[in-house]
Amino acid sequence: MKKFLTGITTAAMLMGTAAYAETTLKLVEVITSPERTKVLQGIVDGYEAANPDVTVEIISLPWGQAFEKLATMVAGGDIPDVVEMPDTWQALYAGSGQLASLTDHVADWEHGATLTEKTVAMGSQAGDLYMIPYGFYLRAMFYNKALLAEAGVEPPETMADFMAASAAVSELDGKSGYCLRGGPGGTNGWVMMAAAMNGTNDFFTEDGKSRMNEPGSVEGIQFMLDLYQKGYAPKDAVSWGFNEIVAGFYSGTCAFLDQDPDALIAISERMPAEDFAVIPMPVGPSGKAFPTIGFAGWSIFKATEHEDKAFDLVAALSAPEANGTWAKRVGVIPVHKGADQDPYFQTEQFEGWFKELNGEQYDPTTMPTYLEKWGYFASTVVLETSQEALLGQRSAQDLADEWAEFLTDEHAKWQAKQ
């Protein structure tokens, strides 16, 4: 009888344990790399340890196909509970009513009050607070000190300097000036160059017309085409994404790279700090530069059956300590008040970004992510059409006109809903 009761007790304990881990949350990350996934898994492991009744399944989508793959998952009913949401996709999913509002959750969260105003504003761009951003990306220019010295040029301050320096470096055997991002995620480069040459980062005129095909913008698009077509960027760069451009820089293939702080991670691991530096983006004819500033964060799909537990996961990912770890390892500016006082962010490595944040000649550009189809435009339209132009199949004016027409139409649709 004693053995029988012991057996029943053991079985009950096993059954209870199985029942205890009763909730599975599906978390999809879309801006992936082995290092990022490792950091994410570490934070999730801590969450699971504190919540033994919840199991988190992490699904990593490669960035180059993430937009289409997530859309396919959602359309097919395989909807995650929590998703890493880029700013460019927020309006699409929020506008179609698929994201849960986090306003009440954050109001009751112990760390909600320490989120910076910019964090809450950016997470609310689609109307309500549909995302808790995990950090901000701001473009600045990396340069290889040795290559510039060998080419006999100084770090560029203007767009004209940048073109000349890229040309000079490209005269060196096996070297190129610019790590151009012609593949997935290249929209920021086209927008920055167009804005710099046009002297404004306003996407639309007062009457709602896109400024993308104004003469200055066309000149900026041609600037990018010239960098590639004149041989100042590697030939393979027409298809380069994030990993390729960063590798192109730290390998010494090209001397210039415009990127966010996240690129510091891979570069710092492979290049001594004294071999490279980060400067602000070069200014255009107006004397101003318009580096893009973007963000990503954590959202919850409204279709989840476990919204409270899903927010508990988002809260764990977004808590000050976890966010600080994430920001340092991933390469973003953190989202809680006071985080900028961390000595890590006061080093020389971040000098270029803070000059952009503080200098009057630098006007950070926020993408019009409130447009419902901005995500499709940035991920698909720009990618396909810009590659055609880089390969000489289309002109800068063709590109500008198509982009302007698309954006003007989307802006009109957005205005009609206001």
Automatic annotation (TrEMBL):
The keyword Signal applies. Residues 1-21 form the signal peptide. It holds the Pfam family SBP_bac_1. The keyword Signal applies. Its main location: periplasm. CDD domains: PBP2_TMBP_like (cd13585). Gene3D superfamilies: Periplasmic binding protein-like II. Belongs to the bacterial solute-binding protein 1 family. This is Extracellular solute-binding protein.
